[in-house]
Automatic annotation (TrEMBL):
One of its GO terms (biological process) is amino acid catabolic process. Coiled coil: none annotated. One of its GO terms (molecular function) is lyase activity. It comes from the Bacteria. This is Enolase superfamily enzyme related to L-alanine-DL-glutamate epimerase. It holds the Pfam family MR_MLE_N. Keywords: Lyase, Plasmid.
């Protein structure tokens, strides 16, 4: 028996010179929440909790861990992360329902699941990818993400020089976006691919107009052109010139199963730090592959969650790509530069035990705004 004896979480914020803009809001700093779990024998594991939104979300997630979730975790056997995740998801459902905060509860549980798998893999002396799937590869295809349509002329060449050959551009800002996308596509080199992400920017009518206007381009996918929670009939009315992608704003295996049965999405993108951790996202990824669809984990955060996403994709397998945000983020880069992990379009998952990082770098500790511990 190795019960959980200690939980810690750190909210961090790093200033950035250039804000990160999406169609629904602007990030003026880069936040992250890192979670550490330790059992009675001193074994430990790390995870990351989604903290990009709302603006004050990082500190809230730390308090949620310490005050609401830790009491349900401390003393619980830590050797079976899947069992812990499923038990806690059910046990905390009513509390999340009572306060209407399914997202925050799910996000903290996602970080906890990562940490428990990290702990288990460290005990076994294996990378998480191989703990989840013994034949998992050590490299996975990756793409450069977070590229604002107005900054593509600068960021795509930089990402290309880093080693990427697939690029995802954010749209949904103006009625000139389609023309800009055409210019970007015309500048790609042989073998390079382009995907788009609207971050739920448009009405179904506006999305259809945009998709019609770029439908002749060989786009890899169009991500969240409309609100993720709109009835499926709205999604079915969208033109299918471009494959549709989504999943970062879907939570729970029943919801993903419903999306798969509806057959609208061609690319499924659950986020390891937003819902499910390894346990939930692994199940969704494998279900997507069984259905003949693509699984590409979503991620836009710090260094632990990015590393976890790489392990997850390696374990699930298939033709998917790892999302790597190429905007400056010290809370990611302090764990290792992107250029040191990407070559020829492939991300090095890593062969160290667990997810990889064993402690928070000093630069990350210097960015801590809030810390809580429960034991």
């Amino acid at each position: 028996m190795a019960p959980v004896a200690r939980l810690q979480a750190w909210a961090c914020r790093s200033p950035i010179a250039e804000p990160v803009a999406t169609s629904f809001g602007i990030m003026r700093n880069r936040p992250a929440v890192f979670l550490r779990v330790e059992d009675v024998e001193g074994a430990f594991g790390w995870g990351e909790v989604f903290a990009n939104w709302p603006a004050a979300g990082a500190e809230h997630r730390v308090n949620l861990m310490a005050d609401d979730i830790a009491p349900a975790v401390l003393g619980r056997e830590a050797r079976d992360p899947t069992a812990v995740f499923r038990t806690l998801e059910a046990a905390l459902h009513i509390r999340a329902l009572q306060c209407g905060e399914f997202g925050p509860f799910g996000q903290v549980l996602a970080g906890l699941d990562q940490a428990l798998w990290d702990l288990a893999a460290r005990r076994a002396g294996r990378p998480v990818a191989q703990a989840l799937e013994p034949d998992a590869p050590t490299h996975v295809p990756a793409y450069a993400s977070g590229i604002h349509v107005d900054a593509a002329d600068r960021l795509i060449p930089e990402a290309r020089a880093t080693g990427f050959a697939v690029f995802k551009v954010k749209v949904g800002f103006s009625d000139r976006d389609a023309a800009k996308v055409r210019e970007i596509a015309s500048g790609l080199e042989t073998g390079e691919r382009l995907a788009l992400d609207a971050n739920q920017a448009w009405s179904p009518e506006a999305a259809a107009t945009f998709l019609d206007s770029v439908g002749d381009l060989p786009l890899l996918w169009m991500e969240e052109p409309i609100r993720a929670d709109l009835p499926v009939a709205n999604w079915r009315r969208l033109p299918r010139h471009v494959p549709l992608a989504g999943g970062e704003n879907i939570a729970g295996e029943p919801a993903f199963a419903r999306a798969l049965s509806e057959g609208v999405l061609a690319v499924y993108q659950p986020d390891v730090a937003k819902w499910g951790g390894f346990t939930g996202c692994m199940a969704v990824g494998r279900a997507a592959l069984r259905a003949g669809q693509m699984y590409c984990p979503h991620f836009l955060g710090g260094g632990i969650g990015l590393a976890a996403s790489g392990h997850l994709l390696a374990a699930v397998g298939g033709p998917g790509l790892l999302e790597v945000d190429v905007n400056p983020n010290p809370l990611r880069d302090s764990f290792g530069a992107i250029a040191d992990r990407v070559a020829d379009g492939l991300w090095q998952v890593g062969t160290a035990p667990g997810i990889g990082p064993a402690e928070l770098p000093e630069a990350v500790r210097a960015a801590v705004t809030h810390h809580r511990e429960a034991a």
